[in-house]
């Protein structure tokens, strides 16, 4: 590259590529650095756009950001489809949250009542209505609810589409690994490197391992259910994400570990819970078992905005369980910050300074 870029993005996952697309579309010169685009957490992610079913006790600010980003998804998807000219499996059938046993249902109900208390749209269903929606559910599933606004997208196809859109808008991808931010020469550097952000910035981003399976419906047909199904099954939490391609993603473990080994015990627990909820899955092909590392943070919320004491460096990392749903809002807010210098008030609870002690804010 002959001219100094306006923006260097470290990391070509969905977040980094979407920021690059947004900035390049506004006329900035953008370079994205990644030796293996799309090989991080998004490679194993299921792609649930779940502002309601993933709203957990005590995470009010994160829940508001999830809802804001989910509301941006339809327009983001339409714009991306237009810009990239390829599909990425955006589906809007909604999500069923179900409990297998009475105890499982009691656990699910506690969360629904918390979610409903926040005004989130989740509606309990009679068992007969549940089965009308998804006859593939096991007869012994005790009950459930529908979160009609919780949708899905295929993260691997999303990364491919974002890459096309970013490159068509003029961004350049270079396949190099960035060891130090000081090696980059750009107007602004955006660290969107998932777990790799810790080594580059010192921010408290830690790997949270998730093991995930991919099944395929027999005869390459569509799976026998269309909603995303999130279930509690004998105390195990599992989600099942059906794709038009015949794939069903079954996930995921949540482990405080930094390796990406696949273990027999995790595969056993995920498959048992999946088949307990949807028995026909026992007949599907098991085509992939993989593990990835979510970028976790001390408060489970992303880290978005300027690094204190590091002029010209922005963080867009720590998306933990929510990288795919949070991609549109992250890209919009970070691009706005770069282009106009104005920080949207939505960013305030998520800026890096919440993790940087006063005495460290004068680095460099
Ligand atoms: N959001 C799903 C997961 O992290 O497993």
UniProtKB/TrEMBL annotation:
TM segment ranges: none
Domain FAD dependent oxidoreductase: 6-337
EC primary class: oxidoreductase
An example molecular function term from Gene Ontology annotations: glycine oxidase activity
Keyword Oxidoreductase listed: yes
Organism from which the protein derives: Micromonospora rhizosphaerae
Superkingdom classification of source: Bacteria
Protein name as it appears in the record: glycine oxidase
SUPFAM superfamilies cross-referenced by the UniProt entry: FAD-linked reductases, C-terminal domain (SSF54373), FAD/NAD(P)-binding domain (SSF51905)
Reaction catalysed by this enzyme: glycine + O2 + H2O = glyoxylate + H2O2 + NH4(+)
Pathways per UniProt: Cofactor biosynthesis; thiamine diphosphate biosynthesis
Keywords associated with the record: Oxidoreductase, Thiamine biosynthesis
A Pfam family it matches: DAO
Gene Ontology CC: one annotated term: cytoplasm
The protein's Enzyme Commission number: 1.4.3.19
Gene3D superfamilies for this protein: D-Amino Acid Oxidase, subunit A, domain 2, FAD/NAD(P)-binding domain
Entry's Gene Ontology BP terms: thiamine biosynthetic process; thiamine diphosphate biosynthetic process
